Amino acid sequence: MAETEEDTLSLTIWGVRGSIPAPGRATVRYGGETTCFEVRAGPHTLVIDCGSGARACGRALARRGIDQLDILFTHTHMDHICGLPFFCLAYDPTVEVNLWGGHLPEGSTFEEIVERMMSPPIFPVATSALNNTYFRRFHGGDPITLGCGLTVSSTRLNHPGNCCGYRIDWRGSSIAIITDHEHGNPKMDAAVAAFVAGVDVMIYDAMYLDTEYPRFVGWGHSTPTHALALAAKAGVTMPVIFHHDPDRTDDALDALRADLVRQMPTAEVARERMTITLRNGERIDAPEAAFAAPA
Ligand SMILES: [Zn+2]
Ligand SMILES: [Zn+2]
Fold first, then answer.
1. 4: CA distance to ligand 1 center in Å?
2. Which of 123, 185, 216, 218 is surrounded by the fewest CB atoms within 10 Å?
3. Mind listing the pLDDT tens digit for each residue in 165-211?
4. pLDDT for residue 103
């Protein structure tokens, strides 16, 4: 991975799956970990979600050596928080970690929800073991000024138990994270389209194929067809299909990718450890590198 420069914006995907990790021979190429993104905007580093991919992400950040980190959570379903107890920097007293949660189910706080997960006998280590790590609240839909000084936009998404999408703009480049989200609510669809308008890279929850979706209406996920339609409507350069069903094999994702690229040559399918680097809104990493075997 190239060093991030002052004027570049990069996204590294540490987990691509929805629902549950899916390791095994059929998922080696696209990866089996659940949601975790690392975003670097010039000198700022932030993480979005701590699914199972957060374990490797934390180790990579520790190797790089940082003393401050903001982690934004989209929501508190297990596939987006299960890696937090295994995120090494949250226990490291030399690293200040801010955990940001907003737009949660009525009457609950992010801290209480994480405490429920990290409590014996469900999990042996309680949140009191976290070190130099702080729970921060924000109002979903509002901009958030992070501990690192960067301001990130947020929007409310259509998902059971609520969810937040994020948009990071940096020196003429932009990335939006739209997961987990179901299309079909006209008011929210319009708000999401406005939120991602003109963005260079859009991660989008396309867990179900068109043929599968009718069985899962109301489950809170969308389709590749809607990803491309939204990209066309909102002027998104590069939609990236994300939140792969745990049963979606590498071969099935290859076929999906071929179909998407035929319709929109800049479309991509999220792959574990893929890094997309932008400068002035242009992709400057070699796209082939994104499809090399994971390290
Ligand atoms: Zn999910
Ligand atoms: Zn979810």
1. 28
2. 218
3. 999 999 999 999 999 999 999 999 999 999 999 999 999 999 999 99
4. 87
Please tell me the distance between residue 197's alpha carbon and the centre of ligand 1 in angstroms: 23
Q: What is the pLDDT of residues 129-155, one digit of tens each?
A: 999 999 999 999 999 999 999 999 999
Ligand 1: centre distance to CA 77 (Å): 6
Q: Ligand 1 centre from 270 Cα, in Å?
A: 14
> Which bound ligand lies closest to the C-alpha atom of 18?
1
Q: Which ligand gives the minimal distance to the CA of 243?
A: 1
Phi, psi of 103 (to 5 degrees): 55, 55
pLDDT at residue 293 tops 70? no
Measured in degrees and rounded to the nearest 5, phi and psi for residue 192 equal: -65, -40
Q: What is the mean pLDDT of residues 257-281?
A: 97
Quote the tokens at residue 93. 């007293």
**Residue reference for tokens 């480049």:** 173
- What domains are there in the chain, each with its CATH number? 8-277 (3.60.15.10)
pLDDT tens string 1-24: 445 589 999 999 999 999 999 999
Residue 294 pLDDT > 70, yes or no?
Answer: no
Ligand number, closest to the Cα atom of 205: 1
Instruction: Give me ligand 1 centre to Cα 6, in Å.
Output: 32
Ligand nearest the Cα atom of residue 244: 1
Residue 295 is predicted with a pLDDT of 44
Ligand 1 centroid to 228 CA: how many Å? 20
Rounded CA-CA distance 264/224 in Å is 11
